């Protein structure tokens, strides 16, 4: 992929899209990564934050034995064969009685590659709010509560931060609207936009195996990568080409997310913005040296692309992961 191909791929990723994953530049040592299968070796969860113009939050009252009567945001585990948005709409309909449309990803949480939760800001588009008369195994009821006085008990307090994220996003959108791109993927993997910046110049790490491309790292489902979280796969790829001990690596967050779900393609590709910088202060005009032939630094010279990338970097204009 000559520079115009790379330019197109980077522009697509910055727009929340991106090419489908053809291969990986880094994978866990040993066995080739096993294809992911929902409800077998990976669990994906969807969760919706509805925040009305009156600053009210939609909560559901849980019916499950282990948390019966407690309140939570509409959320649930994805089922095989559905897209992420279909899962969100199904869970909201089952638990709150409403039809909805997602507005944007607000956050992605992961406890290693086998458990990933997609948090959306969403808006109701119809349906009838579920009352206690329609209580069933999915939920006892749903109700709107002022954000300043949510009901108790809550199933878990992790939703308080998510409600806050929604309120902040409504107040000032820190990133563009980002929704999953429906593209098939067999693995849990991450496409990296690894950047090095120096006085308004930005370089991006490019993989050279095959056509030049934005590098992709496969996440392992083994206990080591589970414990370390998805950042392990990013650090593994960077260690293969950079001397990390004199660099600071920061995983900024998501630019996009690719998943299909239909036709047994349960994998996901997270498009992740990463920065590398030298630990020692002082202006370093050139990016760190790359070991081997499998990667190079591509100086982004196309003006519009460079300014888009610098803007995203300076504003941390990404979907937070585990934050
Ligand atoms: C897993 C949660 O994020 C909540 C969503 O899972 P549910 O227990 O509500 O699953 P469903 O029965 O499919 O609705 C809570 C957690 O501890 O992660
Ligand atoms: Mg649920």
From TrEMBL:
Cleaved signal peptide residues: none
Similarity comment: Belongs to the Nudix hydrolase family.
Catalytic activity: 8-oxo-dADP + H2O = 8-oxo-dAMP + phosphate + H(+); 2-oxo-dADP + H2O = 2-oxo-dAMP + phosphate + H(+); 8-oxo-GDP + H2O = 8-oxo-GMP + phosphate + H(+); 8-oxo-dGDP + H2O = 8-oxo-dGMP + phosphate + H(+)
Name of the protein this chain belongs to: 8-oxo-dGDP phosphatase NUDT18
Lineage: Eukaryota, Metazoa, Chordata, Craniata, Vertebrata
Biological process annotations from GO: dADP catabolic process; dGDP catabolic process; GDP catabolic process
Nudix hydrolase domain mapped to chain residues: 37-167
Physiological role: Mediates the hydrolysis of oxidized nucleoside diphosphate derivatives. Hydrolyzes 8-oxo-7,8-dihydroguanine (8-oxo-Gua)-containing deoxyribo- and ribonucleoside diphosphates to the monophosphates. Hydrolyzes 8-oxo-dGDP and 8-oxo-GDP with the same efficiencies. Also hydrolyzes 8-OH-dADP and 2-OH-dADP. Exhibited no or minimal hydrolysis activity against 8-oxo-dGTP, 8-oxo-GTP, dGTP, GTP, dGDP and GDP. Probably removes oxidized guanine nucleotides from both the DNA and RNA precursor pools.
Swiss-Prot/TrEMBL keywords: Hydrolase, Magnesium, Manganese, Metal-binding, Nucleotide metabolism
GO molecular function, one term: metal ion binding
Cited SUPFAM superfamilies: Nudix
Species for this entry: Papio anubis
Cofactor requirements of the protein: Mn(2+); Mg(2+)
EC number(s) recorded for this UniProt protein: 3.6.1.58
